[in-house]
Each structure stands twice: as C-alpha cells, then as structure tokens.
Amino acid sequence: MTPAPVSAVLGTVATAPFAVLKRFRPHRPIHTEGAGLEGTLLRTGGASGIRWIDEPGQDPVRARFSRSFGFPHGWPDILGLALRVPGAEPGDRADVLLATAGEGRFSRFVPTFHRRVPESAFASFMPYRGDRGPVLVAARPEPREQPLATSPDRFRQSLVGNPWVLDLLWATPTGPWQRFGTLELRPGAPFGPDERFDPLLNVPVGARNYGWTHRLREPSYTLARSPRERPGRA
Q1: How far apart are CA 179 and CA 78, in angstroms?
Q2: What mean pLDDT comes out for the span 196-203?
Q3: Phi, psi values for residue 96, rounded to 5°
Q4: Where does the pLDDT of residue 70 fall: very low under 50, low under 70, confident under 90, or very high at 90 and above?
Q5: Domain boundaries of the chain, sorted by first residue
Q6: Has this prediction a pTM greater than 0.90?
Q7: How far apart are CA 20 and CA 6, in angstroms?
Q8: How far is CA 45 from CA 40, 90, 157, 169, 190, in A?
Q9: pLDDT in the model for residue 24
Q10: CATH assignment of 6-224?
Q11: pLDDT score, position 212
Q12: b/e map of 194-212 (b: 16 or more CB within 10 Å)?
C-alpha cells in the first residue's frame, strides 16, 4: 500500500472516536472547555524556510487554552493552545494548534498529560512544509512563581495583571529547537461555540501542509466542522 492510501486509512480510523464523542459533545468533540486569550506575538526571525517564522514582525493574536479530553478538574489531561494570527492578505488568518509534548527527538511527537500548566513545550506534532523541508513549531512557557491551574476559569483569572509569556520555537523533525519570537497572552473574549480553528485551511504565511498530514487530519476536522445534530435526529 502506498503512503497516500495509508495516511487516508489512518485518518479515517482516527475519526471513529471523534464520531462517538460528537454524539455527546455536538459543539466540540474535544477541547470542550477553554479560556479565550488575546495578546501580541513578536517575531525576531529565523532560518526555517517559512516566511512567518523567518521574517521579523509583530502580530496581534487571539488564542484559546483548553483541556483536550475534558476530564474532571484535577485529573491529568493533554493541554491545548490554539493561536490565531493574521494571514497573508487583509482579513486572512492562520491557525496554529499546539498541545503539551516532550521536547526530545522522539518525545516531541508524544502528547503529555498534566495536572498543572507545565513549563515544557506545547508542540505542533505535525510538520509544516517549508522551502527548506519540514518544520515543527512549539511554544515554551517562561517560568512563573506559581504554576498555572488547568481549569479554564482559574487559568484565565491567574493572567489578570500577570500575562502568560512563552518563547516561540521552531525545529526540523530531528533537529534542535531554535527560538524565533515571544508570545504574550492575557485574558480575552471567549470564542463562540461555532468558532473553529482549522490548521488545514488556515496556514501561516509561507507554510504549506504535506499531503500525508492533510489526509491524516482532514476526516477529523471535517467531522468537527459538520453541523450539530438536532434533538431527536437519528
């Protein structure tokens, strides 16, 4: 079986648990509860082969911090950080989705569970396609005196007057992480129930998706974008 059918089959298989969750969580199968954030993304530049990373600049950003599976508060969960930044044209946007992971050569592809917000990285897992090859993106929180709680409400309250600051990083799949900017986030307006982040449709300036990553993720994102079932509907 060639790589294209393999990734398509894996994408279909991965959709099954999302379909089950969507019956009980029609708005969002995962990342059901989140904290709306806003802030500034300062890019100092890099050499990744992706313009958004490599060109210095400053972007206004909206973001959402969330718990992936929505386990009871106090239980470990995979933590998510979704970023929305301006796209290439006025009115365009780019959605960058990150989740807690390791930072090592192999652990950067493994999601990690946490009871509190860690000081280790939130990583993209799936690489973008740049002019020089595959590129991963991550955000590593700067140390704080008190660790942040993962409850969205408590997390948001902790940022009042004390923004969340993260270093922005890029790397090849097996290379060292390199800093390309800083992200500063504070409490912002919540996202509506029908607002969706979509890293397949909305990619950063100069980045592209690989065909295999698109095939792997597309079924799940299509399901998440699908209309909610009405009460009583089969």
Answers
A1: 23
A2: 87
A3: -115, 120
A4: confident
A5: 6-224
A6: no
A7: 23
A8: 15, 22, 32, 10, 30
A9: 46
A10: 2.40.180.10
A11: 87
A12: eeebebeebbbbbbebeeb
